[in-house]
Amino acid sequence: MELIRVKDLYKTYHLGEIDVPVLKGVSFTINRGEMIALMGASGSGKTTLMNILGCLDRPSSGEYWLDGEELSDLSPDERALVRTDKLGFVFQSFNLLPRTTAISNVLMPLDYSPHRPHHGEAKHRALELLQRVGLATRLDHEPSQMSGGQQQRVAIARSLINQPALLLADEPTGNLDSHTSVEILRMFQRLNTAGITVILVTHDANVASYATRIIRIADGLIESDTLTSPAPASLSGPHVLAGAAPTNGHDADGNGFGHNGNGNGDSESHGYGRTDPGHARTAQVPATIASGSESSGTAVLAQAGRAKVQATPQQVIETELAPEVTEPHHAHHVRHSKLFALMPPTLRTALGALRRNKMRAALTALGIIFGVCAVIAMMEIGQGAKSRILESIASMGANSLFVQSGAATSGGVSFGVGSVLTLTPRDSDEIGRQCSAVKAVAPLVRVRAQVIYGNRNWVPANMFGTTPEYLEVRDWKDLDAGEMFTDRDVLNGNRVCVVGETLRRELFQGESPVGKTVRVQNVSLRVVGVLSRKGSNTFGQDQDDIVLAPWSTIKYRVAGTNAQNVNQSAAATAATGTTSPTTTVNTLSNLYPGAVALYPVPSATEQADRPQPVRFVNVDTIVAVAASAEDVPDAINQITSLLHERHRLRPDEPDDFNIRDMTELTKTMTQQSSLMGGLLLIVACISLLVGGIGIMNIMLVSVTERTREIGLRMAVGARSYHILRQFLIEAVILSLFGGLVGIALGRLASVMVKHFAHFPTQISIPAIIAAFVVSVTVGVVFGFYPAWKASRLDPIEALRYE
Q1: Separation between Cα atoms, residue 313 and residue 193, nearest integer Å
Q2: Would you tell me the crossing angle of helices 148-160 and 119-132 to the nearest 10 degrees?
Q3: pTM higher than 0.90
Q4: pLDDT, tens digit, for every residue of 413-426?
Q5: Are 44 and 23 in contact (CB under 8 A)?
Q6: DSSP 499-535
Q7: Which residue numbers in the chain have pLDDT < 50?
Q8: Strand pairing of 221-227 and 257-258?
Q9: DSSP element (H, E) containing 316
Q10: CA–CA separation, 518 vs 548, rounded Å?
Q11: What DSSP element (H or E) covers 226?
Q12: How many CA atoms lie within 13 A of 285 on its CB side?
């Protein structure tokens, strides 16, 4: 039955402007079950012909039929499918993967087979083949640990793993000694007797003598095509394959197979397309003996003087080349690779390639490792610095809102903010209770006075009457000593206070001020606490030069506010429209300008002698802090709406209060944060870009170094997308590994900076996730071009690469 038909095959190579014809119209046919020797001198075109027959190359013109299918116009991937489905290759230089075990080399073609068996079945098949070629004890050995003959046996087992119909061997004994060469050639004969068509490409007549047919090629043309009597295929030893040994004999007409019980027989016509009158050949091939016993034939049946193959080559291989393997040895290997077997073939291939080149893989990942490490460390250090800046700005009141009384006008003259007494402590309480965007609120009463302790005195920059919530408003929760006064102290107007670090230094000079008594405007105040140190703010003001006391104490005891001197100058001016004379003493504030007096106005002397408390209690300012910078607009709207309601202001009336926020300070904070984030992002991109370029560079070097490996994988059936996927997976694995290690090192660097340099750091989960995602993206982006370049290699050129 015809397996191969070649008709008018031409092949011309184009070297620049020069055309080099190699094949010049080759035509022949090959039947199933033949063992052909393709002979010719170097440069005769035999290797090119073998490459075309093996679907590694395509002809310039002509027809090539394999198993009834015309293959000359197939695409590279379609030719790869034919190679993995019907062809097996045995190369002169073995072409085994270095640093890869014998069994892994044998299993390689199955990774690209469209009908790949289960990993356990594939492993079993490989073990059987290696045992049949005499390598049962060399399963885990690498090529460097085996002799040339053993490496060639591994190559033969690899060529049979896909159960091919056609076996192509290019100078299979060129690198072997004479004894090993005989063993390999006789092994080819036994494979041929098992039903596989074998084509030997050689220039050695001794090698050709083992074939049943010799096709000589010279200068790209068929010179001769003759039948021969092959050398006997018997050889004792553990490498001998069990099974029957049918003979291929040719009669005078040159067309027939023959077989009898002892290996001698006449053949009957099947047709080689030529005659050899007067000369009949009979091949005498004794039956193969395994372990001293005669094997019965199963592949060939004698029927009416005619030998006919009753089974397909795949079935013959399963029968003849798959005897029982000892279970303990097989089980050892299956257990050893259970986890590995769960992975997809391409992933296993990529991991195996990285494992074989550990140092190169580690160096490739260094770029990503350092890039991600730098990104994580800088992001966490930057996040810590940002938090420190935010805390510093928050301590100055970045989210603070200052509610002040409105301005009174008379005769077109405005008397400034605070000239209308409209804010009360009750307003402060309601803002804290009803405004959800407000985090904390406190009223303020300001006074400037001298603080005396013993024979020392000091005028603080800030003396405020307030409530305990003021510490939360200013984010001043910690006290160095003592405690904050309470709401009961505010309610009762107790004479207590809390001082800052500057007053402790200036007045007490190292002594603890807690429990001591200071005098302010001849009012004794007991110090109950010392505020923690804040230092200077952005404007250079000393924030520790401060005294805090209950607002009721400051208003009624220290400032002496009563019925006559409630915001004296502002009230008097608002009431009369003129400036009070310097002789005026404690003039009563006119709380309701424009009202008609029901009683005579007391003189200034009478008012000073008989002060009356003011039922309308006012405060200078209400200080509130929003929950966050984003909540500042909501807090302003809520406070405005509430004060409109409490002050009974109609929609057409102007506000009797003013709200001031820290817009400029917040804007500065936002700009600084954005600038820092942008700088860190630029540094991160540069670091990862350097790592990505490193991956691309090393992957390109890897493609160059592994060109022969790529050609070998394509020769045994790998399609372009297999190679593309393999190198992409390698790049992604390197990026993943680099990303994980970089994250760990980045976190370690951040912790070390915080521990040894005492610089604030803060873990950033989004930065870690982003660095991990970016590292994978870098692997895909920068690994694609090397992978694409590898997938576009020509298998012939790749196998020839040195």
Answers
A1: 10
A2: 140
A3: no
A4: 555 655 567 888 99
A5: no
A6: E-HHHIIIIITTS--TT-EEEETTEEEEEEEEEPP--
A7: 234-314, 316-337, 562-592, 595, 614-615
A8: unpaired
A9: helix 313-320
A10: 13
A11: strand 221-227
A12: 27
